[in-house]
Structure formats: C-alpha cells, structure tokens
Amino acid sequence: MPHDVDVTLPSYPTLTSLPATDHPDLVAAPVAAALAAWPGAAEVAVVDIDPDLADTAAMSEAYDIPMTAGGNCVVVSGARAGDERIAACVVRADTRADVNTLVRKLLDVRKCSFLPMDRAVEETGMEYGGITPLGLPTGWRILVHDALLDEPVVVLGSGVRRSKLLVPGRLLADLPGAEVVAGLGR
User: Which InterPro entries match (predicted)?
Assistant: First the structure.
C-alpha cells in the first residue's frame, strides 16, 4: 500500500498504536524483516507494553483487552520417518491448540509435542513469550485458528516481550504461508 494512502491502524483505547513498519526497533529483527516484505503490514500496528505483562492473561487484564482478541502462538513438532515437521499454531487466547489430535493429524506424525523453549527461541530469533507467526524460519508451517479471522483486532507477539502487534483478524489468512484451520483452538 503506498505511503500516501491513509490507513487507520488497529487500536485499543489503553494502548498507543504506531505503524509497525516505521518502528522496527520495537520488534525482533526477523519480525521487522517479515513486516518490510509483507503487503499487509501497512495495516499492522505495534504497541509498547510493560514486558512483565507480556503473558496474555496479564496483558488482557492490565490493558482491558478481551481474551478473544488475543492470538497465542505455540510451536510444536513431530517426526515421521526421521523427517521433523514443525508448525507454529496461532490460536485465540481463550482456547488451547488441539495439538494431540488435529495438529498431529495435519503434520502427519505419530506424536506431536511443544518445541523446547531454548530451541524455539534460538531458531526463531525471538524472545520466549513474544514468538509470533511473522518472521518464522522458512519451512515451518503456520496454522491459524479460523476464529481469529472474525476478530476486528488481534493482539500478537512482536518477537519481543516489550511490545505487541495489533493486526486486523482478516489479515491473518494472508500471512505468508498461513493455513487457516477450522477448530484449531478448543
């Protein structure tokens, strides 16, 4: 979207929305690179938050944001015939990813588990508690809970704990590599 076109940034009254593409200093480096390359980024805001309130429930309470507007990103993995399969699952914060049934079947693995924290942090280049579907390693699947698409504004991690991204829910289907999955969150 050209810079001369006015775009209303997603917002919440308790937070100050800034254009995410203009503030790469507020997000992790891989997130900044992904935003710079993604056409939908013109409609994405970044907001500064207290890093001690980065966990979804604490942030929702402190900033008066409904849990249905939160998008939690968890990274899972499994293997089949020695081939590791990794996926980032983005689910509405009032649900949990259906890892043991739905995600396991989507990845076509016998067993699916959460990627160890140290490995997730190292491979994403993001802080634990700030991992987001933007800027993930090439080859990782991105599974998006269909219920998030109906939210006017979804609050996602920014790759760091001191800020969050505000994204119109409909744009989550347009994230590079995103697969919208019905019932991903239960």
Answer: YbaK/aa-tRNA-synt-asso_dom_sf, YbaK/aa-tRNA-synth-assoc-dom
